[in-house]
Amino acid sequence: MRIIAHIDMDAFFAAVEERDKPWLSGMPIAIGSDPEEGKGRGVVSTANYKARAYGIHSALPISTAWKLSQEAVKRGEPGVAFITPNMHKYMEVSYRIMAIVRTYAEHIEEASIDEAYFDLSRLGNFAKAVTVAKKIQKEIQEKESLTASIGIGPNKLVAKIASDFKKPQGLTVVKPSEVESFIAQIGLRKIPGIGPKMELALQEQDITTTKQLQALEPIDLELLLGKSGIDLYTKVRGIDDTPLVEEWIAQSIGEQETLQRDTLAPDILLELFQKLCAQVFDRFTKSEFATFKTVGITVRFEGFETKTRSKTLPEPTNDSAVLEFETLKLLLPFLDARENPKRKPIRLLGVKIEKFT
Predict the structure, then answer these.
(1) Minimal CB count within 10 Å: which of 67, 94, 105, 144?
(2) So which residues are the catalytic ones?
(3) E strand residue ranges, the chain
(4) Homologous superfamily of the 252-356 domain (CATH)
């Protein structure tokens, strides 16, 4: 019997800050760039549950988060505390949490800084798996003063959906015989892969519930959504044989930054570009990788239109000059009519490298 668990820390970044800063206790918190009293740029990284009650969530423009905070103050509710992220601290806490999980599970896949899958099949039954999950939650609470939600199911897909079912500090178990009925009760957007566009496409066909999706045949979904429809057919039934990947390897190293003001001024853009290249290369030299073979850039214009370009080099390299030269060639067309005929000001720049050895 396969028993897979998924642990997801509750509002991780915000929870760490609230733990370490007593004055934040009980307050709505948003981690992200400086809102600058509604004039700030950038987005929210994480919001705790009190801030989410105001409508603030990850990837929300920080200026919008500020406005929602001000609206809450006008209603007589506490204003949001906006905190600059401290990734170094979050990584250290993550390392200790994953070490706790490893004491209970032989096989673990770290999916991100605040979530992981782990295999409890050796226990033989779900009751024992629940006991272990409770011990993990308790140890994290005692040692780190943080809460985690855990989902347990017959595979990674079901475990991940289950971990989000009763947040915060939830523990949800879905046995094999319960999978389809469990998934039938959750919202469409809780199914991995269903985003706003797919949800809208389904709603246009009067499909508004997961249970309605489960009633459709593969051919129906394929005609409606193409190849992704076949994938969706298995997901809404909780079918997943994906193995745990115990060694997580970074797919890319990248940096990006939002400019204080939208601009096409070459001196400002090139200065930021060189800074981003230096930051990316510094992270690369501190990694375990020897070379990279693909470079890329991200350009976001005013109005949030975003373009990406990448190039795979003829040979792998570990040369900072190559990184800067090749990404500069990708960037320059955006400063003139080749990629930017309407001369739109640029809001954000990003640089990344991929395909490591």
Answers:
(1) 67
(2) 115
(3) 4-9, 29-32, 44-47, 81-83, 108-112, 115-119, 148-153, 171-173, 252-263, 292-301, 306-317, 346-356
(4) DNA polymerase, Y-family, little finger domain (3.30.1490.100)
